[in-house]
Design a protein that fits this description.
alpha/beta; Spore Coat Polysaccharide Biosynthesis Protein SpsA, Chain A; 9-stranded mixed β-sheet; 11 helices; 9 strands; about 40% helix; globular
């Protein structure tokens, strides 16, 4: 019964061939029908390696240019959905991979509890610690309890606490990352695909919030475990490197806050902008560039301008 669920994995990769090899080796041992690998126009030999790989479930999708994580997931999901019509898709980065048996746990969960439209896995660093960037969350503006916790604890107030990672049952959430994110066919038919114009960061949060706004349920499943071998932030909290990433990170964060907060958005903005300005002092001699990039991110977010390309932002970073 559980094996009748048609599951397709969608992996987005860019210039991380060694990570991709490890991820695909893990996926090769899991029960899924196809593995769609979206190559974001890598330059490190990824495309050649994919063409030579012998796995009848592996389906490479080669993009003509780097569309970022958002564009890659949109392209991969659309291709997988239109080509294979899967019951479910599971999304993951090239540096993320399932724990052994994770897809078996998913099949057990989705068969036993059919009410969920999407399911988020528990994500850990390779050392076994919970990965903070992939910690599921509740929208504090939709939950009174989460709202009060957020006032007292900040970010920790609306992200699920460590104890929830030991739960045996599924827990309702409002936002999750695209690492071990399972989304159903019915949900895609109603909600559509992630916004490719976001390029990088926040596409997963905005998409999961959109799923919830369609009155569809997302469950956090601690028994389904993934590993994420990631290096996005420096050891100093809030410092994003290289600087061009600051633009997409902050712009898309503002869009996510706007989606989550609704009428409370402007108050939230007054709280977060001073904090982001102060982060600039951690960039040392690059502080002026940081402030310039941050200001453009804020302006474009408020105007809902998603047209600047990676090259556009890199030029902003290079200005005197």
């Amino acid at each position: 019964m559980t094996n009748s669920i048609k599951l397709v994995a969608v992996v987005v990769t860019y210039n991380r061939l060694e990570h991709l090899k490890t991820t695909l080796a893990s996926l090769a041992t899991e029960q899924c029908n196809q593995i769609v690998v979206v190559d974001n126009n890598s330059t490190d030999g990824t495309s050649s390696w994919l063409k030579e790989t012998q796995d009848n479930r592996l389906v490479p999708l080669f993009l003509e240019k780097n569309l970022g994580g958002a564009g890659g997931f949109e392209a991969g999901m659309r291709y997988a959905f239109e080509t294979y019509q899967p019951d479910w898709m599971v999304l993951l980065d090239d540096d993320a991979r399932p724990y052994p048996g994770a897809f078996d746990r998913f099949r057990e969960v989705v068969t036993a509890e059919e009410r969920w439209s999407a399911i988020a896995a528990a994500v850990y660093y390779p050392n076994g610690e919970i990965c903070p960037m992939n910690r599921p969350s509740l929208n504090p503006f939709w939950s009174l309890a989460a709202f009060w916790r957020s006032l007292l604890q900040g970010r920790a107030g609306f992200h699920l606490p460590d104890r929830d990672f030991s739960a045996s049952n599924l827990l309702p959430i409002d936002a999750a990352s695209f690492v071990g994110f399972f989304v159903s066919k019915a949900t895609v038919l109603e909600v559509g695909f992630p916004d490719p114009a976001l390029f990088l960061y926040g596409d997963d949060v905005l998409y999961s919030l959109k799923v919830r706004k369609h009155d569809r349920s997302i469950g956090f499943a601690p028994p389904i475990r993934f590993e994420h071998d990631c290096e996005t932030m420096s050891q100093i909290d809030g410092v994003v490197e290289p600087l061009w990433k600051v633009y997409f990170y902050r712009r898309n964060q503002i869009l996510a806050y706007r989606s989550a907060a609704g009428t409370w958005f402007w108050l939230v903005l007054l709280i977060i902008l001073p904090k982001w300005y102060l982060v600039g002092f951690r960039y040392g001699t690059m502080r002026r560039t940081y402030n310039r990039v941050l200001l453009k991110a804020i302006k474009d977010a408020l105007r809902r301008n998603l047209t600047p390309s990676l090259k556009d932002i890199q030029r902003v970073c290079e200005e005197d």
